[in-house]
Write a structure and sequence with these properties.
CATH superfamily of the largest domain: HUPs
Radius of gyration: 21 Å
Number of helices: 14
Strand order of the largest sheet: 1-2-3
Distance between the termini: 30 Å
Keywords: Aminoacyl-tRNA synthetase, ATP-binding, Cytoplasm, Ligase, Nucleotide-binding, Protein biosynthesis
Protein name: Tryptophan--tRNA ligase
CATH class of the largest domain: Alpha Beta
CATH architecture of the largest domain: 3-Layer(aba) Sandwich
Order of helices and strands: EHEHHEHHHHEHEHHHHHH
Catalytic activity: tRNA(Trp) + L-tryptophan + ATP = L-tryptophyl-tRNA(Trp) + AMP + diphosphate + H(+)
Helix content: 40-55%
Bound molecules: adenosine-5'-diphosphate, tryptophan
Number of strands: 5
Number of domains: 2
Subunit structure: Homodimer.
GO molecular function: ATP binding; tryptophan-tRNA ligase activity
Length: about 325
C-alpha cells in the first residue's frame, strides 16, 4: 500500500511565535506519532529571501529555527527535518510550474497583497511567485497532507491547481494535496486583533522563547477593547459577543490554560467581575509555564549547533534521494531529456 506523505515548511525569519506553535508546530509534534506515512518538515530559506533581510544573519536564523523545531518536540527519528535550499530541485520544479500557472491565479493571493503593502520598496518577483515555489515544495515529494495555519490555505489550494494543470498537460503525476488545520488555525496579532500574529510584524507576537517577564510585558500591551481603560473591568457580553481582542485572549487561554482556568474566567467575564490585567497576567503565566522545557532545550541545542546541522544535513540528503525519481519523471514528461 502507498504511504501518505506529509510536508510543511516554516520561514527562518525570526523566533517562532505562539501562533506558529498553536497553528502548526504543536500539531506536528502529535502527527509525528499519529500520521501513517512519512513526515517532512523544512526550513523555508528560499522563501524567506523574498522579504527584506540581512544576509549575514540568515544562517543564524536557519539554525535557530531548526533548534526551535527540535526543542518544541520534533524527533528527527520520526520526522525528516531539512533546509529547503539543500534540495535545490524545488527551484527547478518551481520553474516548470511557473510555465503552467496563470498570472491571474497569483494576483488573487492575499498574502502577496499584504506583504506588498508592507514592503512597498521591495515588491520583488519572488514575493509574487512565492506560492509556486511552495507548490514545488509540496509536490516534489508528492505530499498529500500539508499541516498549516489558516493563512496558508490559499497557497495549498494553488498547489492543488498546479498539480491538476501538470497532470492534465503531461499525464497523471502528482496527487492533489490537502491542507490540515488545527482547532486554532489563526492566532491574531496582539497589536491589531483584526490581523494575524506574524513574525514580520513587530509588536504583534509573543515568541515561544521569550522570558516570563517579556511574555507578561507583551501580554499586558495586548489590545483588547476600544473603550474602557486596560486596568478596568472587562465589560460583560454586548449581544453575547466579545471584541476581537478579548476573543483572541480567550483563545490563548483555551490553548495554554487549564480547563478550570477557562471555566473560571468565562464565569467571571459573564458577570463582569474580571479585570483585563488579571486575565492577561494569567495567560502570560500559563504561556511561560508551557515553554519552560522548550526554553531549556533550545538553549542547549544552540550551544551545540554541530548537532543541529548534522540533523539538517541528513534530512536534506534523504529528501534528495527520495525525490530523484520524481525529477527524472518530470524532466522526461516535459520533454527536457
Ligand atoms: P510568519 O507569518 O509569522 O512569518 P510563517 O510564515 O513562518 O510565520 O508560518 C509558519 C507556519 O505557522 C505556517 O503553517 C503558518 O500558517 C502558521 N502560522 C503563522 N502565523 C500564524 C498565526 N498567527 N496563527 C496560526 N498559525 C500561524
Ligand atoms: N508559506 C509558508 C508560510 O509562510 C511556508 C512554506 C513554504 C510552506 N513552503 C511550504 C508551508 C510548503 C507548507 C508547505 O508559512
Amino acid at each position: 500500500m502507498k504511504k501518505d506523505i506529509l510536508v510543511t515548511g516554516v520561514q527562518p525569519t525570526g523566533p517562532m511565535h505562539i501562533g506558529n506553535y498553536v497553528g502548526t508546530v504543536r500539531n506536528l509534534v502529535n502527527l509525528q506519532n499519529a500520521f501513517r506515512g512519512r513526515c517532512l518538515v523544512f526550513v523555508a530559506d528560499y522563501h524567506s529571501l523574498s522579504e527584506d533581510y540581512d544576509p549575514k544573519k540568515k544562517q543564524e536564523q536557519v539554525l535557530m529555527l531548526a533548534a526551535e523545531l527540535l526543542a518544541a518536540g520534533l524527533d528527527p527519528k520520526k520526522v525528516t527535518l531539512y533546509v529547503q535550499s539543500d534540495v535545490p530541485e524545488v527551484t527547478e520544479l518551481a520553474w516548470i510550474f511557473n510555465t503552467l500557472t496563470p498570472i491571474s491565479f497569483l494576483e488573487r493571493m492575499t498574502q502577496f497583497k499584504d506583504k506588498a503593502e508592507r514592503q512597498r520598496s521591495n515588491i520583488n518577483v519572488g514575493l509574487f511567485d512565492y506560492p509556486v515555489l511552495q507548490a514545488a515544495d509540496i509536490l516534489l515529494p508528492k505530499a498529500t497532507t500539508v499541516p498549516v495555519g489558516a493563512d496558508q490555505v490559499q497557497h495549498v489550494e494553488l498547489s492543488r491547481d498546479v498539480a491538476r494543470f501538470f497532470n492534465r498537460k503531461y499525464g497523471e503525476t502528482f496527487p492533489e494535496p490537502k491542507a490540515l488545520l488545527t482547532e486554532t488555525p489563526r492566532v491574531m496579532s496582539l497589536a491589531d486583533p483584526s490581523k494575524k500574529m506574524s513574525k514580520s510584524v513587530p509588536g504583534s507576537f509573543i515568541s515561544i522563547c521569550d522570558s516570563p517577564e517579556e511574555i507578561k510585558k507583551k501580554m499586558r500591551s495586548a489590545v483588547t477593547d476600544v473603550g474602557p481603560k486596560e486596568e478596568g473591568m472587562i465589560p460583560p457580553f454586548a449581544n453575547g459577543r466579545m471584541s476581537p481582542g478579548v476573543t483572541n485572549l480567550m483563545t490563548l487561554l483555551r490553548e495554554f490554560g487549564t480547563s478550570e482556568d477557562a471555566r473560571r474566567v468565562e464565569a467571571a467575564y459573564r458577570d463582569g467581575s474580571i479585570r483585563y490585567v488579571d486575565l492577561k497576567d494569567l495567560i502570560a503565566a500559563r504561556i511561560a509555564e508551557h515553554f519552560v522545557d522548550f526554553r531549556k532545550k533550545r538553549a542547549s541545542l544552540l550551544k551545540n549547533p554541530a548537532k543541529v546541522r548534522s540533523v539538517l544535513k541528513r534530512g536534506g540528503s534523504r529528501v534528495r534521494t527520495m525525490t530523484r525519481a520524481t525529477m527524472t519523471e518530470v524532466r522526461k514528461k516535459t520533454g527536457l531529456r
